């Protein structure tokens, strides 16, 4: 391929000089940039090649430089126009610049005169911008001659010896410069690049002796050519480009420019190598001088640091001396006397008072340095750190500590550095999984999670199933993230510069092989310059936050059903820290987002406080009592502040007002608890997946009491299982007659009362034998404790063994039976059996029916619907004034409508039910008009909801017909105007409440049949008779009994009279 004889001249701005085998980016003026752009457009198929000629300045050796570098234009960046008017503005056009990337190929000599100023004027005046073209020639660097009068050789020096000496001196000067730059460089990538170039220099051959003249001359030429090529590369890289050896605009910069221009004009290889050696030697001298000056300045400024380190050493010596005195005084646990006791009191408090604030400040600085470089948190921390140092720098270490601003900054830095920010080690991919992920990667993770949930909670099978699904998703997401980290770690472990080593394996290849080595060396040099794409900060921002972005679980259920303990079990299964945030009564938005730093005694919010306590960004956070959060007021709405926290798509950039730096909460597992859903806002509820925790059955309560509550109370009161034993009858009596709730908290308190009662007996028994020698405690297990009739079973006898005739036996019975509960817990609140107080109060009465309700805390129960006839008398006109329905009991609008609907249906079907003698008569009007008063007891509790229609209808029918509903029958469901029974909610809670109230028969809508089969436990279904009805006629027949209510017409139940 022939070389071009004419090239377009590209003038380089001062003080840039492009040497062969170098690559630079140059800022060009608008005129030159447009001319170069036209050249780009003319060369569509290939990148244009120009002659990069240094600009002529006053300090140049020649007014018109005759040498340049043939360069390939790799890239040309044209800045965009900011407005349409800017294109017409000539001043703005002149102020625009172009960025061109050039790669030096070889030296060129200008064979025609080139005037830089005249060429620029021509480009300005011409309508079409273009670059000036000149004839060029390529000087040869292979003209090897036996120099007779060179400065570094004698006239009789052979050519081989000259080449060898020149290469040796060049290698020595270059290695000194590279070693100095590698030691002073702060970037590991630059150090590695310098060491690689030094290794390439070591491989450069410097001997050619022992060969024939012709062979020796060829070998010297090859070595000299390679050495001269490396000289161009090194001088172009370290002199005036990436490494600045002098301040801009001074004489040192002009000297560097002159040296590079002289090197460019030297085409002969041997003089060029000697000139490069001189330049590198001079550069090494400058670098050494600069280092000595910098060290001298550092020594003069490090007086305070020296004092600090000396004081630290002094404290360490004093500490060692104190430990030596303590070990030499005797036993380490012995109390010294005399003056030593005074030194013993000089312990941790005195150590803290001796330690200055410098220790804490150095700890803060160490944490800031450990943060990921380029991240927003590190920038914010460094900014506040510099503010603090400016306050404390003027008057010493404690100058700014007493100021208000210094205290605020110091407190912010302590909070800021205490948070688990991403560090340098965390951002580096590794092949070894972290401790938090190692437990998830085990094959027995789900099995251990199931075992953990079963050991902490009894029952709740459906809730545990949902939690296992949630934990399985967590495991799969973590495994996928771990696989991605391993892939990145394997890519990061690939050796850098492997292509360079492969290109240098064959050093004897000439021609094209030298060009390949040149390109590879440029790759190594470019790696030393940090690019925008490889900055750590940009890397972190572009890296997507990984983690489980699944639903936020919301546990809803009555108090004492294990909602909080479920969150703790999840944390133990995941091996993560657990933090609980109580939101009950929180009325200020700042409690969630934190207070701004402008306020006195401001601080972060509850979320950041929990993050600091956990110490890890992937902890389990339980937001307890989220339904009791305060409503919005002039302090803000804390519920609205939680919307960002509980949104998986937004909490990766949570902004606390105090920290004022985006915090990533995407790795936090949020779990919420509530007793009801009514007080939770719709947007907040939309972000959560509701998991209902119903109340426990009696059988579940007995198992929980035996497995969890009793051992817990025994340990809390200092007793063991041998000291207190409850029979099954006693435990069941406590659960049924003393506690009737959805949870187990009252049951636990009752068991605690029993354990404390036996603890008093055991303590009195120990007091009885205190001071009597020869006594012994013996547990008498001779009788079978499984039979409740043996009241002396497991008795503890205390006797005098030395004098049996004088023994004073004191017995202690660990067994607690049902007959002893009244003496321990008092009179039972509920009774059962034939003498049941509930049965007496709940006898068969006219107009009274029991309905099923769900109370405010999510507990189910029964509620009587009471109706009574209120006579009104006759008016003066002889017409009745009755027919009114009065509803009381703190009823809402919906339940009032249910009562009116039930009365309307009864009036419409009064003739069919046998209440009236005519289908057109009103049962409440007539000769004796009446009113009806319907009341729901417990007036202090508000009641509402569409589920009392069936119970109210049955109560009105019972009142007007005289038939009674048995007291062990309860019902729920809503009716329509045509008599259909519609489904209702809360079936499981209502059924459990009926079971606790010892209801034997429950009437439910037919559409709720699936809820009973799916949600109610088998033991409850076996203990209660369920009747599913489709209309009011079936409900009346199930409530009163078959044949009790006679119907005059079978068509009465099909449709009411319209």
From TrEMBL:
Active site location: 947, 990
Alphabetical UniProt keywords: ATP-binding, Hydrolase, Nucleotide-binding, Protease, Serine protease
Protein's UniProt keywords contain Nucleotide-binding: yes
Taxonomic superkingdom: Eukaryota
Record-linked InterPro entries: AAA+_ATPase, ATPase_AAA_core, Lon_lid, Lon_proteolytic, Lon_Prtase, P-loop_NTPase, Peptidase_S16_AS, Ribosomal_Su5_D2-typ_SF
Stretch list, region Disordered: 324-359, 779-813
Bias kind Polar residues: ranges: 324-344
Catalytic activity: Hydrolysis of proteins in presence of ATP
Gene3D superfamilies xref list: 1.10.8.60, 1.20.58.1480, 3.30.230.10, P-loop containing nucleotide triphosphate hydrolases
GO MF term (any one): serine-type endopeptidase activity
Domain Lon proteolytic: 843-1042
Entry EC number(s): 3.4.21.53
GO BP terms, alphabetized: protein catabolic process; proteolysis
Keyword Hydrolase listed: yes
Biased composition (Acidic residues): 350-359
Family per similarity comment: Belongs to the peptidase S16 family.
Name recorded for this polypeptide: endopeptidase La
């Amino acid at each position: 391929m022939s070389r071009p004889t004419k090239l377009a001249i590209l003038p380089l701005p001062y003080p840039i000089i492009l040497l062969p085998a170098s690559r630079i980016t140059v800022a060009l003026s608008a005129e030159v940039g447009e001319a170069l752009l036209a050249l780009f457009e003319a060369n569509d198929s290939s990148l244009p090649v120009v002659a990069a000629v240094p600009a002529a300045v006053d300090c140049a050796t020649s007014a018109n430089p005759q040498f340049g570098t043939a360069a390939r234009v790799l890239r040309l960046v044209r800045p965009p126009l900011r407005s349409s008017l800017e294109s017409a503005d000539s001043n703005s056009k002149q102020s625009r610049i172009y960025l061109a990337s050039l790669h030096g190929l070889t030296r060129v000599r200008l064979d025609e005169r080139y005037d830089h100023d005249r060429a620029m004027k021509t480009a300005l005046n011409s309508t079409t911008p273009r670059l000036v073209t000149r004839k060029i020639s390529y000087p040869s660097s292979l003209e090897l001659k036996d120099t007779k009068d060179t400065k570094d050789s004698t006239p009789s020096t052979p050519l081989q010896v000259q080449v060898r000496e020149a290469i040796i001196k060049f290698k020595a000067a270059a290695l000194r410069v590279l070693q100095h730059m590698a030691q002073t460089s702060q970037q590991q990538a630059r150090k590695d690049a310098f060491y690689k170039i030094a290794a390439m220099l070591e491989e450069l051959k410097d001997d050619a002796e022992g060969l024939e003249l012709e062979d020796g001359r060829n070998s010297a030429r090859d070595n000299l050519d390679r050495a001269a090529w490396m000289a161009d590369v090194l001088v172009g890289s370290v002199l005036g480009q990436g490494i600045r050896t002098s301040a801009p605009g001074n004489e040192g910069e002009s000297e560097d420019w002159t040296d590079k221009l002289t090197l460019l004009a030297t085409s002969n290889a041997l003089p060029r190598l000697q000139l490069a050696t001189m330049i590198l030697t001079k550069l090494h001298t400058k670098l050494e001088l600069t280092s000595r000056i910098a060290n001298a300045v550092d020594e003069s400024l490090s007086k305070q640091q020296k004092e600090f380190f000396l004081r630290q050493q002094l404290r360490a010596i004093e500490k060692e001396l104190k430990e030596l005195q303590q070990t030499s005084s005797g036993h380490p646990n012995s109390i010294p006397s005399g003056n030593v006791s005074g030194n013993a009191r000089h312990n941790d408090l005195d150590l803290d008072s001796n330690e200055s604030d410098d220790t804490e400040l150095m700890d803060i600085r160490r944490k800031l340095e450990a943060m990921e470089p380029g991240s927003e948190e590190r920038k914010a921390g460094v900014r506040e750190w510099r503010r603090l140092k400016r306050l404390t720098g003027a008057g010493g270490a404690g100058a700014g500590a007493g100021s208000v601003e210094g205290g605020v900054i110091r407190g912010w830095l302590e909070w800021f550095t205490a948070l688990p920010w991403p560090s340098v080690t965390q951002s580096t991919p590794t092949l070894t999984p972290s401790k938090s992920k190692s437990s998830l990667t085990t094959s027995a993770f789900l099995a251990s999670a199931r075992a953990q949930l079963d050991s902490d909670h009894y029952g709740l099978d459906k809730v545990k199933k949902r939690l296992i699904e949630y934990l399985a998703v967590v495991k799969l997401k973590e495994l996928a993230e771990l696989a991605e980290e391993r892939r990145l770690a394997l890519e990061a472990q690939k050796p850098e510069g492997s292509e360079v080593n492969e290109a240098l394996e064959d050093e004897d290849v000439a021609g094209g092989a030298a060009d390949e080595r040149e390109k590879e060396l440029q790759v190594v040099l470019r790696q030393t310059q940090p690019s925008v794409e490889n900055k750590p900060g940009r890397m972190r921002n572009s890296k997507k936050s990984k983690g489980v972005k699944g639903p936020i679980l919301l546990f809803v259920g009555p108090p004492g059903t294990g909602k909080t303990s479920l969150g703790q079990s999840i944390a133990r299964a995941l091996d993560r820290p657990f933090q609980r945030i109580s939101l009950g009564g929180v009325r200020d938005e700042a409690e969630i987002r934190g207070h701004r730093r402008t306020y006195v005694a401001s601080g972060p919010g509850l979320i950041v406080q929990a993050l600091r306590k956990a110490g890890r960004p992937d902890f389990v956070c339980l937001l307890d009592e989220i339904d009791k959060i305060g409503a919005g007021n002039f302090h803000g709405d804390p519920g609205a502040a939680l919307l960002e926290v509980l949104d998986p798509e937004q909490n990766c950039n949570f902004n606390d007002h105090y920290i004022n730096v985006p915090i990533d909460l995407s790795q936090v597992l949020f779990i919420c608890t509530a007793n009801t859903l009514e007080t939770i806002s719709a947007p907040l509820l939309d972000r959560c997946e509701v998991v209902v925790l119903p109340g426990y059955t009696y059988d579940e309560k007995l198992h929980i009491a035996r497995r969890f509550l009793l051992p817990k109370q025994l340990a809390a009161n200092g007793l063991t299982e041998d000291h207190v034993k409850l029979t099954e009858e006693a435990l069941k009596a406590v659960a049924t007659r003393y506690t009737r709730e959805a949870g187990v908290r009252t049951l636990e308190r009752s068991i605690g009362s029993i354990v404390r009662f036996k603890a008093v007996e055991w303590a009195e028994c120990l007091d009885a034998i205190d001071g009597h020698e020869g006594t012994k405690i013996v547990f008498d297990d001779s009788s079978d404790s499984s039979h409740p009739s043996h009241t002396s079973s497991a008795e503890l006898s205390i006797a005098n063994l030395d004098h049996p005739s004088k023994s004073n036996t004191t017995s202690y019975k660990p067994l607690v039976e049902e007959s002893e509960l009244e003496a321990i817990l008092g009179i039972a609140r509920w009774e059962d059996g034939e003498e049941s107080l509930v049965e007496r109060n709940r006898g068969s009465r006219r107009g009274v029916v029991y309905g099923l309700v769900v109370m405010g805390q999510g507990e189910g129960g029964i509620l009587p619907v009471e109706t009574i006839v209120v006579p009104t008398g006759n008016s003066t006109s002889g017409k009745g004034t009755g027919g009114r329905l009065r509803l009381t009991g703190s009823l809402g609008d919906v339940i009032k409508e249910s009562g009116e609907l039930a009365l309307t249906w009864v009036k419409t079907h009064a003739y069919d039910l046998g209440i009236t003698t005519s289908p057109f008569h009103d049962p409440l009007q007539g000769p004796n008009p009446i009113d009806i008063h319907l009341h729901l007891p417990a007036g202090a509790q508000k009641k509402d909801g569409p589920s009392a229609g069936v119970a109210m209808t049955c109560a009105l029918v019972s009142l007007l017909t005289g038939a009674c509903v048995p007291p062990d029958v309860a019902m729920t469901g809503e009716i329509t105007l045509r008599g259909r029974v519609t489904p209702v909610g809360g079936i499981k809670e209502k059924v459990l409440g009926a079971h606790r109230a010892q209801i034997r028969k429950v009437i439910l809508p037919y559409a709720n049949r699936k809820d009973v089969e799916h949600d109610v436990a088998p033991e409850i279904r076996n203990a209660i008779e369920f009747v599913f009805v489709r209309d009011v006629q079936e409900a009346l027949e199930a409530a009163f009994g078959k044949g009790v209510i006679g119907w005059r017409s079978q068509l009465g139940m099909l449709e009411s009279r319209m």
